[in-house]
Amino acid sequence: MTRFTGKHAVVTGGTSGIGRATALRLRDEGARVLVTGRDVARLTTIGEAEGITAVLDDAADPDTGRRLREAVDLHLDGRVDALFLNAGLGAFAPVGAAEPQEVDRQFAINVRGPLLQLAALDSALAPSAAVLFNTSVVNGLMMPGASVYAATKGAVRSAMRSAAGELAARGVRVNAISPGPVDTGFFGATGLGAQEIEAFATTVLGQVPLGRFGTADEIAATAAFLLSHEASFVLGHELVVDGGMS
Predict the structure, then answer these.
(1) I need a labelling partner for 25 at 20 to 30 A (CA). Which of 10, 51, 189, 225 fits?
(2) Interior CA angle at 61 toward 20 and 191, to 5°?
């Protein structure tokens, strides 16, 4: 398919997992792709792929928007046709163990980051551009230990809805993709120990009717659809991709 021929795409958090798979999918369908990340080694690796430009940018930094806009102006001629606000993280702990710094960290990366990035790229969005936020099925589940992470993703969903209503007048579509459990190494970044990760993953897997974790490529295929002209009448929608978990 060549749905993105001649298009300029930005994928934040595009050096691994869902972000990397989506960046490669958009590239393979014809887009010039700019990816961001904070891991220099991973940035170097994906930056070697033809058609992809990789730039260092941490979504937690209050200056993330300015840096991203400068990169878009430099590498994409100041125009964005497809924007996937994907960078994020999750750390799990009981409600009673919530710490101020951890709450601030997750909200900075998962909520403030994409909002500042969208604000900075607002005037760079082409007519009929598509914006996609990455939320999570956790925002609608009663998952123990996920109160802070779920709160950030619920906030992202609400922000998406407001942005969709605001940008629709310009022909810009804003939606969200809500992945379920995906085999991307996400659990390794939750702050849980090896045994806790194994037990948690087993519990989560038992809630998925399809009986398996999803793959990054499966999420990327859905993300590419929502960012493409084939989803031209989809607006303000959170599309769940979770194997039936929710």
Answers:
(1) 189
(2) 65
The 8-class DSSP code of residue 77 comes to T
End-to-end CA gap in the chain: 31
pLDDT at 133 over 80: yes
**Which is catalytic among the residues 4, 84, 133, 149?**
149
Q: Specify the DSSP class assigned to residue 136.
A: -
Q: What radius of gyration do the chain's Cα atoms show? A: 17
The model's pLDDT over 83-123, given as tens digits with 9 standing for 90+, comes to 999 999 999 899 999 999 999 999 999 999 999 999 999 99
On the question of pLDDT at 10 being above 90, the answer is yes
What's phi and psi for 52, nearest 5 deg? -125, 130
What's this model's pTM, rounded to 2 decimal places?
0.93
149 is catalytic: yes
Structure tokens at 216: 């990054």
The structure tokens 């303000």 sit at: 236
Which tens digits make up the pLDDT trace of 55-93? 999 999 999 999 999 999 999 999 999 999 999 999 989
Count CB atoms within 10 A of the CB of residue 179: 26
Q: Domains in the chain and their CATH numbers?
A: 8-241 (3.40.50.720)
Asked if residue 172 lies in contact with residue 234, where contact means CB atoms within 8 angstroms, the answer is: no
Q: What is the maximum span of the chain, computed from C-alpha positions, in angstroms?
A: 51
